[in-house]
Amino acid sequence: MTAGTLHPTLAVLNRQLTLYRRLWQASIFSSFVLPVLFLISIGIGVGRYVGSVEGVDYLSWIVPGVLASTAFQIALGESTYAVLGDFKYVRAYHAMRATPVRPVDMVCGHLLYLVLRAEAAVLAFLVVVVFFGGLHSPWSLATPVVCGLLIAATAAPVTAFAARIDHDSYFSLLFRLVMIPSTLFAGVFFPVEQLPAVVRPLAYASPMWHGVEMCRAATLGRATAWPLAVHVGYLLVWAVGGVALAVLAFRRRLED
């Protein structure tokens, strides 16, 4: 089957994968090497001084956090400059609009690509973690599903944001006010309960925290902090709402 006979959503996905096959070398460090370095330096190095957290060794405790944060950062990073660039500079989305590809196909194709792109990094990281003894439950096999949901919940609203702006300077604010705080204070490196009570609601509001909690429950074989349906439902709201906003933003921008 050729790209010309594919469903429009899959045609967008095919275009993204074709581009990635030509540029994948640039993502090796951030997607594959950096998470492993975090695992070794923080999990093993710092872990010698921390000891255990919530009854498990520190390395095992941060594994799900690093796993979720890797997916989160890929989803956020790939939904900013790439989306704005395809509108403002490359004008790839305008070219797609001249074909049967609809805005909803553009958005869904982009999100499918991000899920596949980030899942490759997640699976590679899980293989490495096995050799460090960081997985303690068969439910660890569910972490790629959790990360896929987290990717959609993160990338969809960010894609909507990127489609609405006209200058990449806004992304610096997004990274400083969303990505960095989420990585530091959403339970990746220490329990959210150690934060001041007045700040904790901000951590709970982050999709990142819900992803981390579900990954941690899976790798350690324990119950989630809140009912599982609440965690899943919260991420679904972000994902579905983000897709709706992104489709609207794409449609309006392509009318210009």
TrEMBL record:
Subcellular locations according to the entry: Cell membrane; Membrane
GO CC entries: ATP-binding cassette (ABC) transporter complex
PROSITE patterns: ABC_TM2 (PS51012)
Top-rank taxon, per record: Bacteria
Keywords tagged on the record: Antibiotic resistance, Cell membrane, Membrane, Transmembrane, Transmembrane helix, Transport
InterPro entries attached to this UniProt entry: ABC2_TM, ABC2_TM_bact-type, ABC_2_transport, Nod_factor_ABC_transporter
GO molecular function: ABC-type transporter activity
Protein name per its UniProtKB record: Transport permease protein
